[in-house]
Amino acid sequence: MLKAYSWLTFCVIVWGSNFVFGKILVQHFSSALLTSLRLLFIVLFLAGLAFYKKQFKRVNKTDLFSILLLGIIGVFINQWSFFVGLQTADPTTAALILATTPILTGFLGAVFLREKLTPRMLLGSIVAVVGIYFVVAKGNLSSLHLDIGLIWIVVTMVTFAIMIIMTRMLSQRVDPMTITLYSNIVGLIVSIPFAFTLDKQLRISGDISDWSLLIGTAIVVHGIAALIWNSNIRYVDASKASILSNLEPFVAMILGFVILYKPITGIEILGSLFIVGGVVLSTYQRKIEGPQL
Q1: Which residue has the higher pLDDT, 284 or 73?
Q2: pLDDT tens column, 254-274
Q3: 187: number of CA atoms within 13 Å, CB side?
Q4: What pLDDT is recorded for position 240?
Q5: How would DSSP label each residue in 251-270?
Q6: Fewer Cβ close by (within 10 Å): the C or N end of the chain?
Q7: Torsion angle in degrees (nearest 10) through CA of 34, 76, 251, 216
Q8: Cα 22 to the chain's mean position, in Å?
Q9: The domain containing residue 252 runs over which residues?
Q10: DSSP the chain
């Protein structure tokens, strides 16, 4: 049990660090090109793993169409909007906004999967929104300024929630490895022409350290960490693991302070507690009241 929690904590640290490292990468690579390059290395890793485990499988036309949509919305747009947003958005604020994904997923699940929408979910949503207000407005409504980067991070959050719902529906017929690999291949193919059209100025680093960070984060964040999480989640209580994953914003906050020298303010901590508390309040009730699809 302790070993499983240790590995899950490692995954949370890796995913939380993605916001800080993503902020660094967008300073050296243009967003669309960075998206294509990252997806390339993710696909190479997953394809190599699938080849090693002999997990290449055929899918029917209906599921293939769903995977195409998943690849476009849940992979390409999700990844691209994430990097576009980080060009101007604060990584800690971005992490906090994305932390509310389980709440939006719950509402989408109620609409498309007929999952139960509870009063606790509604209350948790209100608490989380209050937390976002503290973080974005710094507790002062007159200073509220919605950065364009935060709007793109909201797009990332919405597409991530859509990806979760689509993956839940597909996983009833297709194994997770096939869904992940094929949707990332679609995302990579779609991203290639946009890499040379979406960016007003194409930027690519010639520094080996930047490329190492790009390749390393692609493989570790979207490959190794996901595999470790899926391998160890079976040994712990699901609700506790969910709460553990909500620590990502605090990881982003701490690493932002250590690596980017970004000060941590009291209002950010207060907003973080509201957001994470709202997410926990929403997801906890949903987990104990009914099975997840």
Answers
A1: 73
A2: 999 999 988 888 888 888 899
A3: 32
A4: 62
A5: HHHHHHHHHS-PPPPHHHHH
A6: N
A7: -50
A8: 12
A9: 2-289
A10: -HHHHHHHHHHHHHHHHHHHHHHHHTTTS-HHHHHHHHHHHHHHHHHHHHHHHT------HHHHHHHHHIIIIIIIIHHHHHHHHHTTS-HHHHHHHHTTHHHHHHHHHHHHS-PPP-HHHHHHHHHHHHHHHHHHHTT-GGG----HHHHHHHHHHHHHHHHHHHHHHHTTTS-HHHHHHHHHHHHHHHHHHHTTTT-SS------HHHHHHHHHHHHIIIIIHHHHHHHHGGGS-HHHHHHHHTTHHHHHHHHHHHHS-PPPPHHHHHHHHHHHHHHHHHHHHHHHHS---
- If one counts the domains in the chain, the total is 1
Q: Tell me, what amino acid is at 196?
A: F
Radius of gyration of the chain (CA): 19
